[in-house]
Design brief:
746 residues; homodimer; 5-stranded antiparallel β-sheet
């Protein structure tokens, strides 16, 4: 399998050494309100999220897409004034033979370094802890043994032009902001202005692509760089504003030159000025990077493992945490899904419980007074999905088990679009009641606008259809809730809910079974999906794995054997088989998708993580581990998946896809991260927290003989060693332990 | 002044010979439902307009803008397989020395021809009379004296991908459509599919930019062209689908090879197939081009002039007609404005009255039962502008005067969002009543959401503000209506309306005057705009010119003298002076615009055409002609305006613009075309039609000594010669005529 880079800094970074990865490999950098998605060249979008709606002030124009082609909106051109040669130091458009060309992906920043013609140039990109800004640090070093005359042109076409061809928009040099100020007096956005500022005054600047790239120029060879001088003119009413600076340098041998640039958004020129003074204070960036390193170390310290699999170690210790952190804060970036954020939090509690609590409490304000939740906020998505309530008890109990903090249950939280406020415990109750008391003809949960599976979005819209997965998940959530009620000594209430869950379990086995497996659901017309008599989509993954997880299956191992037979491929398990090929408005979007895509029979990794959990619950340790390895980035049986080694993907396009089987459609922003993390930690390694204890119940693959685990639980540090030592040695140790126990008793 | 091309084919085409025009020079190609805006290289957007909303199925991705940079979405790469050299024949990305490189802009098609390495390649682009499709014809000729092995790659990135990264979207080769079919099963659009088809089966094809351009490639040097072979693979769930074909040719000396390609939209594969069979029938394109030529000739025949100014002749005879045709059919392309289309029709009746009638009757369905109209349809724009009704009598009487067809007044037309239907005459009445019976404190027309000047959109929202221009235009429209009523022998009604108009005239002179000029308006707060006591915007162009046009001014020449003093610059007259510099929510958008832009003191050419009309009404012939020359494309005092020689512009950014004074912000889609046409024909040449006669009352500049005019009026052909012959000769001719008259009487 072709390697494009390697772990560096003990797995805290991944250094891409072959920049031509199969598709752009991304890093996400963010704070509360600002987010960058950048590829290995530093190109890509930035978002600022307003209260109601995330929007994209910085577009990646000139770019086919963030998956389909490389972005190109942050460039540093270097020009050698003696030879008149120029090159894009962080992009190498013409694929020249650079002495060095690499991208170091870190948790919170990316640094691209190149050496060409004995000039070293690095571009470090970072989003600071606060404010709506991206920070650039450019360093240029003369590695030759003679003085060099260089011109450096940092360039950004990340659309400062909030609206193209707007008569109210202008850009000018402003001394106050030490750079270019882009003003739009008529913008409806709260932050009307943006800026591109430098801590060293440039010799010249440019504001429009017409003059930089040239009216008929190519960005790889900009007219202005070829000519060597920028116009230092502002502009207005422009189709494509850009920002570019020009620095004329003379560098002695080994001399290094550094410039800091910030590009951000502001309400006014004055507020921009205040922010900029902060960014350009001494060591600002150094402190910001240190904060990021500290955060990573803090999360590492809270839980880490050491096995003989470096990839898994680095994912668990650093990178899945990073991915989950993104999810719990930004949802899926394009929007903040209730179910998504709650699931991410269930994993996040394991290494950052206090932030998780805050997020959980905020998310609960998106629950209606009837117990259901909205599908998504920022922006709102109101299609009547019905699974939101499932994730309320499961996530909150995960938080309590990790922290022992029962007080969360007493917090008062508003309901969505309601004058009512209730305790968190009541929020859970309302959710359970919503699920358990709104049943269909077969005594199963109503499907409504859909469940975890977004794409069965029309099967239950008329209020008759019933979802099997939702019924199973409801049983699971209810049992979780009953357990909590017992902890609270509310035995009677616990028994009441347990009875409802048991009834549901019975109904599932009586009404939702076809020959040897659980069906997928029953739509409004009474058609049973996921049966052998169905024309297609006869066998669903999730209703088998969740039959195990929810303990509703009578023959769980048989179900999982069928999963192996019917759904397995080289890179995971299909979500359904066979895929739908004919559009069915009585089922939903899934039937419109090209076979192999998303819910229509992709290897949907989130569902594959459920499968690993189910395997472990049945002590199918080898199946669990082999399933894990199938979906992790570097599966030799799926060499063209194109996933970053430091991230997991939402899905691999399924074997039925007519053109692109095995390819990942995107990474980072996926619920897969949280569930894969938990499957490894809680199920394979078996490190779980209960209301009063830390449990260790591994379901370890034979491939792993030894693994060290470090965990902080209720402020105590635990070092755990799991070692496969054989029965004899185990017996010996047991004896020793017995002796030790006796001696203590004495 | 730098020349970039020349008139060819007797002004029926303009051939761009220096392809690097100051900005892309456009051609518009269209039929009822499909429109292309292409630059000299053939790049640019295509639209399909659905019933309710025009949308853009074909985006120009990879392109900074249609003004700010060149579009690049239709390319023909040629590769010489002996030398391995390749070039984009219609784009010449690397600015190589081509033997020939030109673009012939025709009414309805554009043909780009290049010769490089002794290979001639032409690309002809055309929208046929019907259907949602663009037709390409590519011809390749071997001009060398040896056989050549070539590969030809036509490429389109004009986003067949109706939605990026859509799981429901795929593209595959289909024999039925002789090319690539792009299907989106979940599209909400009526035409879900698009295709890219060829009458010669290509040797290979490509469907994604990832493989054509290359994941990290540059479109000027696509990986696939360099490698020489396309993959012939379909794709789905793609960020950027493209269409490219590969033809392997061997051409003998002087051998010519031709391929026809069509790229369009269809409901289904079958309907695509039917359409394609039509396009690929023998001589289809030849017939389509002949139809376009015939239409141009027909419009030429209906009215044409011959002066010593070739530019003006070609504009009047061919190109302004083309521009007005676009306007009356597509409005301003981004939407169909009531006022825009009605004004365009007032000019259009002069050379295509029957189509004008259809358009007028349809537009009247956008008039409310209260007499006002919506601002725009497709898409609807409902801001409560109040000037729609002004254009109803003025345009309808223009139609009647041209044709003598009074029957239009009896046509029954629905009102917008109303069950009521009424005759066209009643539509006019309702409009007049709306204007004349809804007056403010000063007895002037209410300003409401605005008038012709879109950007005073907040001055009268509270229902108190009064518009001076609207009041003047109302007097003009009412007088026009009174004249019509007299023709209909409705004397009493005519007198009633005339009285109202006179009252309004009195009020204007009493209440809307400041020292020596008409003010701009009075806003809801009672603030008088356009007075000397105002902080800025003290003097408006339109309220002086329309004081003349509406005959409400007592001292019209003084007003026009002031216009010369206060508003003139090298390239026309500012719409207002001084521009607004501080944002005022009690006035509207105009105050938010950068000074010099649009209504905030640009040289707004539509308003300049009003000024020419006013000049002529006062027999200020030299002022009229010099004003006309200032705003026409090739004004040597404004050499960087960047306007196509065959089109007029909406505006030149005003002398107060901080960065871009004199630049045109866009061309073609502007009301300037209709008014400049009428100003030349009706006012400067003085060729007008009245209810019962053709009038010739020129207001000719001294610069013109002789001009021939041909006009068809009520099916009679008139050849008119206007010649400046001096008083003596004139007397002689008069005598001759008297004699002739006597002899006839005898």
């Amino acid at each position: 399998m072709k390697k494009y880079g390697m772990w560096t800094n003990s797995g805290r970074s991944y250094t891409i050494t072959n920049m031509h990865t199969p598709r752009p490999w991304f890093n996400f950098l963010w704070n509360d309100s600002f987010l960058m998605q950048i590829d290995q060249f530093g190109g890509g979008k930035s978002w600022h999220s307003s209260e109601k709606m995330p929007y994209v002030p910085h577009n990646n124009t000139g770019v086919a897409s963030d998956l389909g082609s490389v972005t190109d909106n942050r460039l540093v051109f270097v020009k050698d004034n003696e030879s008149n040669k120029y090159w894009a130091a962080n992009r190498n458009f013409h694929n020249e033979k650079f002495e060095l060309f690499q991208s170091e992906v870190n948790p919170g920043w990316t640094e691209i370094t190149s050496i060409h013609n004995k000039i070293k140039c690095s571009l470090l990109l970072c989003v600071p802890e606060k404010d709506n800004v991206e920070c650039w640090q450019i360093k240029v070093t003369n590695l030759s043994n003679k003085e060099r005359e260089l011109t450096i042109f940092p360039y950004s076409n990340s659309s400062f032009c909030q609206q193209a061809h707007n008569a109210c928009q202008r850009v000018d040099w402003k001394d106050k902001v030490q750079g270019l100020l882009f003003e739009n007096s008529k913008s409806s956005r709260p932050l009307k202005n943006s800026y591109f500022s430098s801590d060293i005054k440039p010799n010249a600047y440019e504001t429009t692509d017409r003059r930089f790239r040239g009216m008929y120029g190519i960005l790889s060879d900009p007219d202005a760089v070829q000519e060597g001088d920028l116009s230092s003119k502002g502009t207005n009413f422009e189709w494509q504003m850009i920002a570019a600076f020009q620095y004329n340098l003379k560098l002695k041998p080994n001399e290094e030159w550094t410039v800091n640039i910030v590009s951000g958004l502001a309400k006014s020129e004055n507020s921009a000025q205040i922010a900029i003074n902060n960014y350009f204070s001494p060591n600002f960036l150094k402190f910001e990077l240190q904060k990021l390193k500290d955060k990573t170390q803090e999360q590492f310290n809270s839980f880490n493992i050491e096995s003989d699999n470096e990839n898994i170690d680095n994912l668990v210790n650093i990178w899945l945490k990073r991915q989950i952190s993104l999810g719990q804060q930004w949802g899926r970036v394009y929007g903040r899904g209730f179910r998504d954020i709650m699931q991410d939090c269930a994993a996040f509690v394991g290494f950052d419980a206090q932030i998780a609590k805050k997020t959980i409490l905020y998310a609960l304000t998106k629950q209606f007074a009837d117990g259901n939740t909205i599908r998504q906020w920022s922006p709102e998505w109101r299609h009547p999905y019905r699974d939101g309530a499932v994730w309320v008890p499961t996530t909150i109990t995960a938080y309590i088990k990790e922290t022992g903090d029962f007080s969360i249950l007493d917090e008062k939280v508003d309901f969505f679009e309601s004058d009512e406020t209730a305790s968190v415990l009541d929020h859970i109750r309302r959710g359970m009641d919503f699920l358990l008391l709104n049943l269909g003809e077969n005594g199963l949960c109503l499907w409504g606008g859909g469940d975890w599976n977004d794409s069965y979005d029309a099967a239950g819209l008329a209020g008759k259809g019933e979802s099997i997965w939702l019924s199973q998940a409801c049983v699971y959530a209810t049992n979780t809730f009953c357990e909590l009620l017992m902890q609270l000594n509310l035995k009677e209430e616990s028994a009441k809910y347990a009875k409802l869950a048991n009834q549901m379990k019975d109904n599932l086995n009586k009404k939702a079974y076809d020959k040897d497996h659980f069906i997928g659901g029953i739509n409004d017309k009474g058609e049973r999906l996921g049966t052998y008599s169905a024309k297609e989509a006869q066998f669903f993954l999730n209703t088998q794995t969740w039959a195990v997880i929810s303990e509703t299956a009578n023959n769980p191992n048989d179900l999982m054997n069928l999963v192996e037979t019917k759904l397995k491929c080289d890179y995971g398990y299909k979500l359904v088989d066979t895929p739908c090929t004919s559009q069915n408005p009585d089922v939903g979007s899934v039937t419109y998708m090209v076979p192999g895509n998303c819910e229509n029979a992709a290897v949907y990794c989130h569902g594959n993580a459920f499968k690993i959990v189910a395997d472990c619950l049945l002590e199918r340790s080898d199946e669990a581990f082999s399933s894990l390895k199938k979906i992790l980035p570097e599966n030799p049986l799926n060499p063209n998946s194109s996933v970053e080694p430091y991230a997991v993907t939402n899905q691999y396009l399924g074997p039925d896809n007519p053109h692109r089987k095995g390819e990942a459609n995107g990474t980072w922003i996926t619920g897969t991260a949280g569930w894969v993390y938990r499957a490894i930690v809680e199920n394979i390694l078996g490190i779980t927290t209960d209301y009063n204890q830390l449990k260790v119940q591994p379901c370890l693959t034979k491939e792993w003989s030894k693994i060290k685990i470090h965990k902080v639980f209720k402020n105590e540090e635990y070092d755990i060693l799991i070692e496969r030592i054989g029965y004899k040695k185990y017996k010996k140790i047991l004896k020793k332990l017995e002796k030790l126990e006796k001696s203590i008793k004495l």
